[in-house]
């Protein structure tokens, strides 16, 4: 079995679906389109990284030919955008929390920078809402802190000034190149191995009224009106970001990606892996508020998690598109991704994925209680 060929075929299959996903997003109402685009961007960068890894020459990456965005290479921005999936969990918890706090303070300062005396007086009395939370059918799936992490690499290009006129064009330019890069490879099988994609038929049953935005005062401690039951608002926001990513994966991803497609499975498994490892790390460092009820739930989730990811290379195979060498021994079915998961875990894929989705729902319930907005 030639693993490089298998890896490339799997990537092209997911690129094809991602092109349909992009059309579905473009056909969303304007407000929903913007929110979903920002949330999915790191996973599109994961696909772009797969192209670089599987189709580049030995000494250079294909994406390096795509040029610069405001003097920074698309390749570098794409790599940083991809890494933002981790929501700062690759950093020390204390450092991650400081970064989140700094981002919100910067956002708050930018909002009030050009206020007149009357507006500043109003803010001093009532406070300035600086944390926006976005809901889909009542479930929080994104917030400005989380989205700020996804876009941190772009803001750094404007010295964290969100009012800088360059920021919008930088993000649009990146998204356009990202989509074009994906399309250039998806087109290799479109109309050939796979049917031609008709953009107008890529519809999603989502309307603007399904979405709701609420703004909260976070930075001003005296006026704060969010996470009121929490002793440590910054740690709570860190967990809230995690919950929003879980909710996006469970509630939005199945709407924009075909339900039984490997791309959906991959994204949900990555979010599950990242969430459980983060919570496990927080518990070990006494940073997670355990009680008798949620301890039992978390303990059971950790048992499930270890039964899926322990003593195999599954983690590497979902985060990267190049199949690990041990997969040369796997028994192939029509779906390479499912074959890989079953080979790595020695378990039935449907059983595994049911466990993962059930555990994600349990984690959201636990985090709902800990990160109550009121």
Describe what you observe in this structure.
With 374 residues, the protein is mainly alpha-helical. Helix content is 60%, strand content 6%. The chain contains 15 helices and five strands. The strands form two sheets. The protein has a three-stranded antiparallel sheet. The chain is globular, with a radius of gyration of 21 Å. About 4% of the residues have low confidence.
How are strands sequenced across the largest beta sheet? Answer: 4-3-5
The ordered string of helix (H) and strand (E) elements is HHEEHHHEEHHHEHHHHHHH
Instruction: Estimate percent helicity.
Output: 55-70%
Question: Based on CA inertia axes, which overall geometry fits?
Answer: globular
How much β-strand is present in the residues? 5-15%
Question: What's the story with the biggest beta sheet?
Answer: 3 strands, antiparallel
Query: What is Rg?
Result: 21 Å
Number of strand elements: 5
Q: Estimate the mean pLDDT confidence.
A: 87
Low-confidence stretches: 115-128
- Output the structural class: mainly alpha
Explain briefly what this protein structure is.
The chain is mainly alpha-helical. It is built from 15 helices and 5 strands.
Index terms:
two-stranded antiparallel ribbon; 5 strands; 374 residues; mainly alpha; three-stranded antiparallel sheet; 60% helix
């Amino acid at each position: 079995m030639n693993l490089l060929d298998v890896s490339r075929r799997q990537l092209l299959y997911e690129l094809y679906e991602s092109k349909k996903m992009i059309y579905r997003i473009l056909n969303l109402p304007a407000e929903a389109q913007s929110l979903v685009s920002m949330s999915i961007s790191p996973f599109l960068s994961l696909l772009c990284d797969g192209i670089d890894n599987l189709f580049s020459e030995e000494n250079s990456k294909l994406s390096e030919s795509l040029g610069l965005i405001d003097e920074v290479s698309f390749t570098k921005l794409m790599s940083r955008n991809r890494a933002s999936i981790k929501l700062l969990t690759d950093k020390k918890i204390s450092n991650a929390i400081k970064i989140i706090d700094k981002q919100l303070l910067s956002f708050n300062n930018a909002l009030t920078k050009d206020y007149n005396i009357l507006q500043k007086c109003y803010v001093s009395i009532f406070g300035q809402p600086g944390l926006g939370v976005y809901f889909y059918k009542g479930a929080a799936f994104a917030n400005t802190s989380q989205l700020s992490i996804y876009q941190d690499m772009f803001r750094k290009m404007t010295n964290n000034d969100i009012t800088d006129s360059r920021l919008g064009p930088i993000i649009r330019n990146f998204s356009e190149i990202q989509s074009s890069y994906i399309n250039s490879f998806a087109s290799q099988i479109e109309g050939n191995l796979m049917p031609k994609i008709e953009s107008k038929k890529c519809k999603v049953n989502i309307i603007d009224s399904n979405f709701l935005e609420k703004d909260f005062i976070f930075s001003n401690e005296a006026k704060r009106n969010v996470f009121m039951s929490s002793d440590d608002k910054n740690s709570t926001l860190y967990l809230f970001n995690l919950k929003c990513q879980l909710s996006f994966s469970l509630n939005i991803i199945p709407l924009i990606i075909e339900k039984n497609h490997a791309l959906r499975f991959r994204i949900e498994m990555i979010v599950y892996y990242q969430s459980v490892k983060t919570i496990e790390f927080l518990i070990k460092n006494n940073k997670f508020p355990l009680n008798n009820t949620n301890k039992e739930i978390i303990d059971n989730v950790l048992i499930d998690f270890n039964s899926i990811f322990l003593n195999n290379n599954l983690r590497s195979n979902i985060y990267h598109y190049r199949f690990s060498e041990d997969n040369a021994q796997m028994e192939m079915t029509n779906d390479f991704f499912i074959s890989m998961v079953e080979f790595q875990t020695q378990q039935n894929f449907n059983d595994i994925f049911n466990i993962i989705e059930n555990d994600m729902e349990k984690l959201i319930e636990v985090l709902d209680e800990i990160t109550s907005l009121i």
